[in-house]
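Quick one, tokens below:
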């Protein structure tokens, strides 16, 4: 991957997640610094914004409200991508903690159903099945990504790709400048690096 990201000004939003270091390392491998911030001026001046997330929706939303990011995020116009719980926060509501989320995309996050042979949380590698053509998906259809989650979108009008864990769920979504990936790119080897590079190329 030889793309030139020298003009990229990336920020990670301070969502209280515990995986910020590993996400920063994933971008560092692409030659891009990824400072964590809740400063409105810094965020507005960025070319690309990541909303990371590890943990649960309700505490993450409480953290965003505490630092004012719940009001700032909907006003952003540059490419914005949520990762894992960060993706779930882009939607209207999560069953996890009965959390009202950012509402940038229509939809409700639900707990994955358990069934014989289907464990929740869903942990491990799963194949991405693209539904549409989108620059964020370049080179990703049919590739395997790493997931750790108990909640997901079952359906979305803005779905880019799905996976199946017992039942289909939304693996990637996008509408305008707002995008999301349910999997962890920082743990997804070449697939994750390609997703991040696709995002930085937007």
């Amino acid at each position: 991957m030889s793309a030139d990201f020298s003009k990229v000004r990336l920020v990670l939003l301070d969502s209280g997640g515990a995986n910020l270091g590993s996400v920063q390392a994933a971008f560092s491998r692409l030659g891009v610094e990824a400072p964590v911030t809740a400063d409105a001026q810094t965020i507005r001046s960025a070319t690309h914004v990541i909303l990371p997330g590890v943990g649960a929706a309700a505490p993450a939303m409480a953290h965003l409200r505490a630092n004012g990011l719940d009001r700032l995020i909907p006003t952003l116009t540059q490419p914005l991508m949520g990762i894992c719980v960060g993706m779930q926060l882009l939607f209207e509501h999560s069953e996890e903690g009965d959390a009202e989320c950012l509402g940038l995309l229509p939809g409700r996050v639900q707990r994955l159903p358990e069934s014989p042979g289907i464990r929740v949380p869903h942990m491990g590698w799963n194949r991405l099945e693209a539904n549409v053509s989108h620059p964020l998906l370049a080179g990703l259809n049919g590739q395997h990504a790493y997931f750790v989650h108990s909640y997901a979108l079952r359906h979305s009008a803005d779905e880019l790709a799905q996976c199946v864990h017992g039942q289909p769920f939304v693996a990637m979504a996008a509408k305008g400048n707002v995008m999301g990936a349910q999997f962890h790119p920082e743990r997804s080897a070449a697939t994750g690096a390609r997703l991040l590079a696709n995002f930085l190329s937007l």
